[in-house]
Amino acid sequence: MKNFKITLAIIFISAFVFAFIKIVFGAEFTNIYLTKANLPSKNEIITQAVAFKSIGMIKASWYGPRFNGKTTANGETYDEMALTAAHKTLPFGTLLRLTNPQNNKSVIVRINDRGPYIPGRHIDISKGAAIELDMLDIGVHWLEAEIIVLEKENSKVEIASNQ
To answer: Which CATH number is associated with domain 47-152?
Structure first.
């Protein structure tokens, strides 16, 4: 009960201080400190272009059970069902759209590990990504790979009001 009274007192004091500052500084305080700069209006959104930069066909394999729960090269704990991948040179955090040309299934993976270390292979994808691409039984497969690139802000779109 004592903690509740202290919490209640802090809330009332904070409200009083806030009201006092608002009275002293007026609208300037509200405009400067209570609104976030450069936010779009309620009926406007800002879009960002997404580009897909092809890096061609790459030979992919998948890895999972033996590495599940171990630390990846970027320090994360490997989750075989997460949509991640290992690549020898792409920066950590790179997003790739991988497409299986045999069934046209695609998945987006994030680079969080290094590998593969088997000659002739370009990427190791997680078991979860292999399931999405329907290549779990095959093991090794050629995939179309595209790096996902966010381009600078390209437009402002007005949204029709429903009111």
So the answer is: 2.40.40.10
